[in-house]
Amino acid sequence: WGANIRFSVVMFDTSYIGEGGLDLADVANHDLPHFRTSRLEYETPHDHSDSGHGVPAMLISFLQRFQSHFKSSSILELREIYDIDVNQLNTQYFQNKAWPAAETIAQYVDNDPYILTLYKELYFRHVYSRLSPSVQQRLASWENFKHLFHQLLDVQSPVHFQLPHNWLWDIIDEFVYQFQNYHQFVAKPANKTPEETAFLAQHDMWGLVDVVKFLELAMAKSKILHTLSAEKESDTRGDNFANNNLYMMLGYFSIIALVRVYTLLGDYRLALKTLDPIDFKKGILASGTHSHSQLFTRVLACHISVYYYLGFCYLMTRRYFDATRAFQTILGYLARTHQFHSRSHQFEQILKKTEQMSALMAITVSLCPQSMEDAAHKLLRDKYAEKIQRMQRGEEGVFIELFAYSCPKFITLTLSRNSQPSSDQEAYQHQLGVFLTEVRQHTVLLSLRSFLRLYTTIEVSKLARLLKMDDQAVRSALLCLRHKMLQMTWTGGPVSSGAIQNVSDIDFWIDGDVVHVRDLKVQRNLCDLFLRHINKLDDVCRTLSARSSNVVQ
Questions:
Q1: pLDDT tens, 468-483?
Q2: Nearest-angstrom CA–CA distance, 92 and 95
């Protein structure tokens, strides 16, 4: 039930930013965490190869083409190399073994420090995804990430190269994933040998403070927060880093990565505050280009991550109406673009993430019924109709099942080297307890709401008999339901903001001993639907007519 998604499908990819600049004050000088080059041995022996140095010929060709396009910053070619060649290498040569060590292939890239750092990142990512990393490899990967951040951030002017957006996103996403994986590994003392335990006690790695600091430094160097705020003020002045596409995307992706970090720690309000600079309503500008606030749509993995963590944070802060809207937005998008992703080698991961968000939406709809789009309603009816009925009857086991399947892999931090690690399930059990506390408060209310929907007026005494409760308990439950019906609801602007609104599909009031109920369901306006499709048909007819004229001419 992990929340990590690591795939490289590009949407709306561009590799430039407008020529206008942002005249902003330089950020203060920041002290980077101390860097030292790792001397750890992380090579894995290879049984066979196509060259005298133990390096397959296909890998040599990959490195040479990578070096050529890397130096010329050919984004389209680099994206093709990353999306296709890397996966072919993993499938044909390195299915169950590691890539050659960086020292082995350095001669093929003229010992280029940037290429070697990026190669090591691919090397360790492959180890984490296909193999089982040793504690030495965990440390070596941490040192390599530190080196990469220093190469990018500890400079006076932007680096000379560019990377495809999906590659850059996967680097940042992998950085947070390995941080998460390390703390889950530490929290399992039974799975470590005495040598591994001693090694971990002697080396500091993947600390929360350093991870957050690197991400915040990337945001500061790129001035992405200033860029997003300046866009709202139509201010286009800036400096070299703010106008550099690589740094802009690095800073932007770091915002999303921080949201994930805070969610893994259970700090949902801080995660939502971190997303505040992104304007989810801005979308496409009048010029037809995507706003900086909508940069996450350029990489499908990032697009899904944004809405997954946004919806989950809303769920855990009891903003079920907003959570449902977030999930149905991204699920509707994935349904509309299904044909573009069905042939991707990452299609199975897209399906899994879709299933997780569908399960979370089933939870939010059970706790807070509301009107939904036809596509989202059909999705829940086809896959979770029976489970939703059981949850609305108050079956706690179904809530636990769906929550365990779809929640992130929470982590508990070890504060020092010598502190005793907690159970790897402690963080999950804590978050599950918080969630179930809210579910139990809704258990009686779910039955109460179902009875209220059957009546326009009903006596309190009759409602008490139906619920097998006394009159005073029913009155207390009605007050509790009234309280739960009022939720903070996003109306635009920062996603952490909102206004208190009644989000239920019913409203009621008590007059003496009688409860009056009013249905708040909004009838769908079919006129707009027909007009929209008529306009689409007219556009299609005009297009066909124009093409027919061209053919005749």
A1: 888 888 899 898 888 8
A2: 7
